[in-house]
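To assess whether the prediction recovers the assembly geometry, we first specified each molecular entity separately, as shown.
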Amino acid sequence: MTIKDIQELLEAKGVKPSITRLKILDYLQRHRSHPSVDEIYRNLVQEIPTLSKTTVYNSLELFVENHLAQVLHVGDNENRYDADVSSHGHFKCLSCGKIYDFGIDFENIKVEGLEGFRVYDKSVYCQGICPHCKVNEKEVTNGKYGKRRNAYRQN
Amino acid sequence: MTIKDIQELLEAKGVKPSITRLKILDYLQRHRSHPSVDEIYRNLVQEIPTLSKTTVYNSLELFVENHLAQVLHVGDNENRYDADVSSHGHFKCLSCGKIYDFGIDFENIKVEGLEGFRVYDKSVYCQGICPHCKVNEKEVTNGKYGKRRNAYRQN
DNA sequence: GTTCCTGCAAAAGCTTTGCAGAAGA
DNA sequence: TCTTCTGCAAAGCTTTTGCAGGAAC
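The predicted structure of the complete assembly is given in tokenized form:
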């Protein structure tokens, strides 16, 4: 996708294509690793020295509102952004932390108890171990588990 | 579920049933509104004046590790907890903010691209408008939308 | 006595807000 | 000029960490 395409995409969604927004959306399009605000900022500030995080926040919020991106809540207390707004699921590897996309047939998910609800969007999120980490497997190195509190051992 | 049941549940999962943990798990069992740490704290501190938020965090973490509760990331930059660890989906109403449970047939969700992955858990999350808010409908009052930035209007 | 639990205070980290200057039409 | 965009600094919140006193066994 060229810069010209990004510009047209922004305009098509009613978002003014400032250079900052162009660059942020371009970054999102090129880096499908579901970057955080901080990652986007750290990379783009090298090219746009006056960039501020506030602007990154503002732009991403605008993108989400206008369906140019979606926000993921993957439980690191940090939002992740994805320029792919089509329906797909996300998988987080508990070992390496990487987030993978996967295809999913949303239409055929059978749901019970949402009668009368207006559903705007559905998302599916999985956790586990990715094939790469399975190979090098020793143990889950994620510091989030077994950190401070120990389970009670009955005797 | 009586306190005695809660105690046995904790012991069965290898978690020492201290009075604090009992009360926190009891609260979670009784309030299926997916409370936040702060909500749990504010309610229980009235009964246990010396309670600290740290302890609430610690206990909930212990519960999650030992499958006594699950943590939800519903995008308020705040963790929510659910004592129902069975497979079910969550729906957030964008108008009132309430989170609803719904049934879902996880086994039959067709997924493509997770071959070779070890999947520990799947979750489904939807957003929209609940029946109650649909009735009183005017507009989505959620302050998160249209807050600070305006979309570009082409002329 | 040893281990585990609890909690205060402080730190850390992400996100939002206020306000003002800059840019664009 | 008027509106919109940008960004610094500060504030707001949730969560984590260090450390120590206390409870349990």
